[in-house]
Task: structure prediction
Amino acid sequence: MNYPRIMIAAPKSGSGKTTVTCGILAALKQKNIDVCSFKCGPDYIDPMFHRNVLDIPAGNLDTFFTDDITTKQLFEQEFTGDMAVIEGVMGLYDGVGGVQMQGSSYDLARVLKAPIVLVVDARGAGRSVLAEIRGFLDYDNEALIKGVILNKASKSFADILKPLIEDELGITCLGYVENKPDIELSSRHLGLVIPEEVGDIRQKLNEQATLILEGVELDAVINIAQEAPILSQNDDMADDCKKESYQSSDNSAQTKVRIAVARDKAFCFYYRENLELLERLGAELIYFSPIRDSHLPKDVSGLILGGGYPENYLKELSANKSLMEEIKNRLSEGMPVVAECGGFMYLTNEITDEHGESYPMAGYIDASTQWTGKLVRFGYIELDDGSRKIRGHEFHYFDTDNNGKDCVAAKPSGKRSYSCMHHKGSQFIGFPHLYYPSCPDFAKEFIEGAMNWR
Result:
C-alpha cells in the first residue's frame, strides 16, 4: 500500500508552519479530502488542535524516540484516509540539541520518504528569500524538498517572487499566505495555547483555510503527496530484529484489564501511540476527570495521570477531596500508576502557584510543588530504571523538593545526567513524559502489574 503524505516544515521556529499546517488541514477537509496528521517531535499541543478542533486523527512521530523501522511501523499503523500531513518541528534540520540530525523534521522526512513543503516567512524580505531557499535546497541530500509556500506575503509580491524562485532554483512555488496577524495562532510557554482556551479557534482556522484556498495551489500540494514514493520494507537484519521485538510486545491480549486515565482540562497531555499500545497489550482505558468526578471508575486496576495544566485548576482539584483520598489509598495499596509532570504534581502534598497561593493535593508523594518562574527542565532524556531504558522529554516551570531518586535521566547531547522519579513496583511517578513505543516492555510490564494487582 502506498501512503500519500507530505511534510510541512520551515527554516526556523516562528515561521508560521503550525498556522499554515492547520489551514491546509482545514482546507483539505473543505475539499472533502479524508486527511490524517502527524506531529514531528514530542509536542502535545499541535495534535490536540488537529484532533479536538479539526476532528482529524493525529499522532506523534519522533526519530529520537524510535528507530527507523518502528517509526515507519507507527506511521503505517496510524495512517487513515486519503493522505497524511506531517507538521515539522523547529527548523527543518534542527534535531537533538539543535545541532544533531536525529529528531529533526528532516530526519523524519528521510525515514518516511515524505516530500517536504517549505514554509518561508517572506515578511519584510525581498530577493533574499531566494538565497534562504537555495541554502535549504543545497543541504537537502535526499532531494525531499518539493515545494515552497511564501508565508505572510502579499499577492502582488508573491507574483513577483514566484517566477524567480521557479526559474532560478528549479523548485515549485506553491503560492502564498497573506499576512493576517489577527488570525495567527498565539504562542504559550509550551507550544500553543490548548484549543479550549481559544474561544474563536474554529473561526480562526476557517479563515486560515480561506487564505490557503485563495493563495496556495492546494491541488498541487495533493499531487506532491500522491507522488510520494512507496515506503520500502527492505531493511537490514538489525532493523528486522527490532521490528520483531516491537511486534512481540504488540499482540492483542485475551484478558482485558481496566485502567483509569485522567483526562480533562487539567490533564490532557497524552500520546496517541502510548494509549493505543496499552490497548493492544490488554488495557481497557476508562477516562475520568479529577476536576469533576468524586470517585475513580469502578473495578480499575491501574491509573494513568498524564501531564497538562493542573496549575490552572488548582482550586477545583483541591476541592475534590474524596477523589484525592481514594487515589492516595489505592496507590498506598500498591495500585500500578504512571504519573507524569502534572500528574506527579497532583500526587504531591501541595502546589503553590505563581501568585504564592498554596492548594492541598493528594499527598501520596511527600513533596511540595511550587512555581519557579523559569524553565526548570527542557528537552529529551533517556530514563534508566536499572532494568530498562525508555525515552521521553521534560518541560516544566514547576519544581518540587522531592523529585525522586529511583531512576537516572541522561541527556542525549553532552554527558549530563541526574536522578529523578519515584519508582516502586509498577509505580512510576515524576516529571518526565515518556514515549512507550521507545520501550514496549515498559508498557507491557505496567499492564502485567495491573493484572497481577487486580
